[in-house]
Amino acid sequence: SAADPARAIYDVTGLGEQRSETHRAALDRAWRLVLLNQFHDIIPGSSIHWVYQDSARDYETIRQLGESVRDSALCTLEALVDTSGFKQPVLIANTVGIRRREIIELSAGVLASVDVPPFGYVAVEKNAEFLQTTDDPVKATESRQGITMENGLVRVKINAKGHLTSIFDLPARREVLSGQGNMFHLHQDIPNSWDAWDVDIFYKERCDVIEGLEKLELVELGPLRAAARIVRVFGKSRIEQRIVLYAGSPRIDFPTEVEWREDQKLLKVAFPVNIYAQKATYEVQFGHLERANHANTSWDMGKFEVCAQKWANLSEAGYGVALLNDCKYGHDIQGNIIRLSLLRAPGSPDPLADRGRHQFSYALLPHTGDLRHVIDQAYSMNVPLLVRDLKPGEGSLPASHSFFLTDRPGAVVETIKVAEDGAAIIVRLYESEGGRGPLTLTTTLPVRKAWLASLLETEQKSLSIKNGSVRLDLKPFEIVTIKYAL
User: Fold this and answer.
1) Exposed, middle or buried, 246 (CB in 10 Å: 0-12/13-18/19+)?
2) Tens of pLDDT, residues 35-78
3) Angle 211-347-358 (CA atoms, 0-180°, nearest 5)?
4) How confident is the model at residue 421 (pLDDT cuts 50, 70, 90)?
């Protein structure tokens, strides 16, 4: 069954029947299964239905293997943290290299405002009063005209039809939208040649705006979080969505569930924004690139649908709007309209492709300045903080601690792992903003030596290390691998 990780359909390691795997073997097995399922006809949805039944079982195995390693590591960390002064300690772990000030759920319905250091953790008292308070609480009102939510940074207005009519940036004193936002567009999607492979530009000739409002209600009211719930019904399908605003953040989240039963249709969501720019920016692996947001040439016209990873952004001097996502990678930005592709429904080679229940989330982020805040928020959205209830106990580590720190915000530590030869720690980072300059990377682990290494983890150059710190000079979008000996 899918719940049994003992054997995946196409297990490529020979470890399928071994229940008591080491962490290294479990991660290796999971990674090889991921690579197997990165085959080019699995990723774009152009395989037959049986392939996706097998792939779903493989990914369930991958998930359970990864969680087993993660949970074991957290148990080890928990035993080392000193929580002897707590009554109901909760450990919050941050596995990315940015400081996280966020609103999270400590348990079902219990919200907290937390501050967690990069690549580190913090232990807090579960019922501490200061965790449930904020200087700028979220306010929300509901009337016949719709719903308004505000947190001191943005004011969000939703009309009686469930459409975003305004997102006003309060500190910047400017309107973010140039028209109604969060509009669902449904296109007829019948490519000339290859149903599952191609999206042809003429799909744009027919577009229906989804209305079908079944429900609009305010379901949560601050002070740390407010949320509106919207339900839409169209064709044979149904969209249920929450529009969420948190205290202390201008980011507006749209966690979404879709019961998708359409045929040969393409579903997109659109945000017309109050930005004038000639190019849009899209995140790619280890960096980002710019593309034209017009169709002045045949080359530009051919880029009517482009891929991005965690975010796409449209900015003018000093101000921009980004659309973040947690699993949707097709974008089109024409003029000032940012759109994200959500679902397709090809008929061949899999007549059931994508049909069924989907859960995903996207977010709109107005911002000042450069892309640094966009990059940080995209990582925060895609890599949630880990929350664990603890029993009070003594330990050698303090209640808050960071294991790796950088002094350059544009330097993103992407990976920390055990070396493939098992005798060292590998840290891989990259310059994310397209700039250059010095970087100091500091670790609190008891490292003795450090080297610059290749992507294959071969030592290339010895680095001077002092009090756990090494210094580097980064080039634009440079990828750097550092190897530490303990």
Assistant:
1) buried
2) 999 988 888 889 999 999 999 999 999 999 999 999 999 999 99
3) 50
4) confident
- Total-model pTM: 0.94
User: Cα(131)–Cα(265) distance, rounded to whole angstroms?
Assistant: 45
Evaluate whether 413 touches 404 at the Cβ level (below 8 Å). yes
Query: Amino acid identity of 172?
Result: A
Cα 40 to Cα 42: distance, rounded to the nearest angstrom = 6
Report the sign of the C-alpha dihedral through residues 435, 425, 30, 376, in that order: negative
Q: Which residues pair with 122 in a beta bridge?
A: 92, 400
In sequence order, the β-bridge partners of residue 288 are: 283
DSSP string, 197-208: T---GGGGG-EE
158-164's contacts with Cβ under 8 Å and 24+ in sequence apart are 158/216, 158/228, 158/230, 158/243, 160/216, 161/211, 161/213, 161/216, 162/213, 162/216, 162/230, 162/232, 164/243, 164/271
Mean pLDDT, residues 114-122 taken together: 96
Helix (H) or strand (E) holding 149: strand 146-150
For β-strands 469-474 and 411-418, DSSP reports them as unpaired
Average pLDDT over residues 309-331: 97
For the chain, how many residues are written? 486
Residue 121 CB neighbour total at 10 angstroms? 25
- Which segments within 160-301 are labelled E, that is strand? 164-169, 174-175, 183-188, 207-209, 213-220, 225-234, 237-246, 252-260, 265-272, 279-284, 287-292
- Where residue 6 falls among pLDDT bands split at 50, 70, 90? low
Res 19: pLDDT = 41
- Which strand ranges, in their side-by-side order, compose the sheet holding 164-169? 139-143, 146-150, 154-159, 164-169, 174-175
* 30 touches 66 (CB < 8 A): yes
Q: pLDDT by residue (tens digit) across 7-41?
A: 565 565 444 444 445 888 899 999 999 999 998 88
**Signed CA dihedral, 194, 263, 351, 309: sign only:** positive
Residue recorded with tokens 């940015």: 98
Count of beta carbons in the 10 Å neighbourhood of residue 88: 15
Does the pLDDT value for residue 172 go beyond 90? Answer: yes
**Exposure on the CB side of residue 402, measured as CA atoms within 13 A:** 17
Check: CB of residue 215 under 8 Å from CB of residue 230. Answer: yes
Spatial contact of 445 and 486, defined as CB atoms under 8 Å apart:
yes
Which helix (DSSP H) or strand (DSSP E) does residue 363 occupy?
strand 356-368
pLDDT band of residue 138 (cuts 50, 70, 90) is very high
